[in-house]
Design goal:
The protein contains no helices and 19 strands. A six-stranded antiparallel β-sheet has the order 2-1-10-5-8-7, with no helix packed on it. Strand 1 and strand 2 form a beta hairpin. The chain is elongated and about 80 Å long.
Length: 287
């Protein structure tokens, strides 16, 4: 199978909440969601549950259920597969002579700000970590992930993960990484749950100002618009106040209309008055 089917097996949906609940009758118990900081300020952006059929060489993934609340200062409310990120794969296969199940996996960013960077330029990468390691759902045997990037302390200590050293803008897809498990031939199907964790420039949301730059003449005008967005880019419907860095160059009205006063460059700022980062536009007034 050359892509991940968005099909949810009946026992794969998992509550990610502070109280422990069972994943399914024959699966592991969901670990408590710890209120702790993620490494390097990373923030969870998606929870995804997956199921593999060994003999068919197929992998099916769907969203795990999001938590009912926000946990700790480093955690985002979690979305899922096809909502905030999309995991895709190719080359899904089982090599029974080596007892290896493998897939080439990439990550696509579906939120309106970059993943894998705290400031838009410094790359800290995107980590896909195993909140629930692979467990057998049909058959018998022990499954081992053979090639993780490493282990880290995410929602628990010592969790295996795959690291993608990319800055992913909206709609961008990472390079592929090969995921491999050691799977005995006595295993028919297995399941696991992964979370995607990444730094984002605006963890508390931002004010999106358009256009970001414009040139006008003295006495000319330029209309600016501002949208208050949450961390994943959803329009919250919030209002803003406008201000100019230099009213001798340009003034701005309550509706975002900028008027040129004198030659130079002024920064026009839109602020929500809340936790969201301010938005700005550079206005050049020509003489």
């Amino acid at each position: 199978m050359d892509r991940w089917r968005r099909v949810l097996r009946p026992c794969i949906g998992i509550f990610v909440v502070s109280a422990s609940v069972a994943a399914c009758a024959d699966g592991p118990t969901e670990a408590a969601f710890q209120e702790t900081d993620l490494p390097d300020g990373q923030r969870i952006v998606a929870a995804i549950a997956c199921a593999a059929d060994v003999m068919e060489g197929s992998l099916a993934c769907e969203s795990a259920r999001p938590p009912a609340a926000r946990f700790g200062p480093q955690f985002l409310i979690v979305g899922g597969q096809g909502e905030f990120v999309l995991l895709s794969s190719s080359g899904v296969a089982y090599q029974d002579n080596k007892q290896i199940f493998k897939a080439d996996v990439n990550v696509k960013n579906l939120i309106l700000q970059p993943l894998g960077t705290p400031d838009g330029t410094t790359a800290t990468g995107v980590n896909v970590f195993f909140h629930l390691p692979a467990y057998v759902t049909s058959g018998d045997g022990t499954i081992t992930l053979t090639n993780p990037t490493g282990t880290g302390d995410f929602t628990e200590t010592g969790q295996e993960y795959f690291g993608y050293n990319d800055i992913l803008g909206y709609g961008m897809t990472s390079s592929d990484k090969k995921w491999e498990w050691s799977v005995p031939t006595t295993v028919n199907t297995f399941a696991f749950q992964v979370y995607v964790a990444a730094d984002v420039p605006y963890p508390d949301g931002w004010v999106d100002v358009t256009p970001a730059a414009a040139t006008i003449a003295v006495d000319g005008t330029q209309s600016l618009s501002a949208v208050v967005r949450d961390v994943v880019g959803t329009d919250t419907g919030g209002s803003v106040t406008w201000s100019s860095s230099d009213e001798l160059i340009a003034t701005v009205g309550m509706d975002g209309t900028v008027t040129g006063v004198g030659p130079g460059v002024a920064t026009i700022t839109a602020s929500s008055g809340g936790p969201e980062a301010d938005g700005t536009a550079a206005i050049t007034v020509s003489g």
